[in-house]
Amino acid sequence: MKRTTRPSFAPAGAAACALSLFLSLSLTSSAVAAPSGRDIMEKVTTTRKLDGSEAVVKMTIVGDKGQTREREITMATKLYDGGKTEKRIYRFLSPADVQGTSILVFDYESKADDVWIYLPAMRKTRRIVSSQNSQSFMGSEFTYGDLNIPALDDFTYAIAKEETCGAGSGNGNAGDACYVIDVLPKNKETAESDGYSKKTFWVSKEKMAVVRGLFYDKDGKLLKELVAGDIKLLDAKNKRYRATHLEMTNKQNGRKAIFDSKKVTFAPNTKDEFFTTAYLERP
What we know:
Layout: H1 12-33, H2 37-47, E1 52-62, E2 68-80, E3 85-94, E4 102-108, E5 114-119, E6 124-128, H3 144-147, E7 155-164, E8 177-185, H4 188-194, E9 198-204, E10 209-216, E11 222-235, E12 240-250, E13 256-266, H5 277-280
């Protein structure tokens, strides 16, 4: 006589355990998938770093009555120390009153940056200390600190909301989904050096790049608005982007500065000699 094999079933307790484990893993996976404000800004910091680059930039300064002044600048960047230091040099080509002025930046990941400026009229290079980061960059509405990569550990980060970047986010970004991140200095010293009590950034989820920013003065009033447009993928392998159009508008005095990169190239073999004070002073 054939013996009948009955199907076996897991005990109810085991099934409940399996279901509980599945739900637990699902919830854990969801939690891991949701980045924090710090995670997002860390990714932004990485995304903007190129192994090397060279560019020709037109800087336009717009006065409160609409009058304009233009500057032509060459710029080069290169990463050192495994990407922990970005070195940059700016050389002013025109007009005559600023021709030959050069600025060298060692932008460190976790300590105060080194900045030197060479003024040909004085035939002298002077160092800009970190407490001067909030000073104007060559008479524009950008500060030296605005153009550098901030030390992430000096600030706190919170996701305020998520929304479409919108028309105010610069050319090519309006349809992108954005994180909106509030950035606050951790202490008074950082606030003094940075020059702001709070910054809010709109970060494109697709590009992981800042497309808009609001900067608040020490009294908490809106001071400036940044718009970053025409963001280009310059290093496809490593997904590195750079905005080729930047506008910084001072909401309190009506002045504006515009940076337009007329030509920018990914150049990992940029010469090391560019990033020395000796080259800074070269005619």
